[in-house]
Specification:
Mean pLDDT: 83
Number of domains: 1
Shape: elongated
Strand content: under 5%
Helix content: 25-40%
Structural class: mainly alpha
Number of helices: 2
């Protein structure tokens, strides 16, 4: 192995260590101007599983959600339930949900 090679030519100045997005690529002034998204990005399998579970309208069939804190589990299931209930209401179908069990930090 050769020693003493100049590695200085590979040094990156600290000003170039991060990229700053130019402001002219945005079509809004403030993030509050942006319409909130209606779907959960990257959660299509979870949404499909929730919708499947909700479609099984039988006693004794339950949904179980698990995942890391802050990943949107509660928001996802609440939005799915609201959408499910509203769809059923437009069809004239009403029914009761029975049990909720929310366990936080069961470890």
């Amino acid at each position: 192995m050769k020693q003493g090679k100049d590695i200085g030519k590979y040094r990156v100045p600290f000003e170039r260590l991060r990229w700053i997005c130019p402001e002219n690529v945005f079509q809004f002034e403030c993030t509050s101007d942006i319409e909130p998204i209606k779907e959960f990005i990257g959660q299509s399998r979870a949404i499909d599983a929730i919708n499947f579970g909700l479609a099984v309208e039988r006693a004794g069939y339950n949904l179980f959600l698990t995942g890391l804190t802050g990943t949107g589990k509660a928001a996802t299931i609440k939005a799915s339930l609201r959408r499910f209930i509203e769809e059923r209401k437009t069809q004239g179908i009403t029914f009761d949900f029975f049990d909720w069990c929310y366990v936080y930090n069961a470890a």
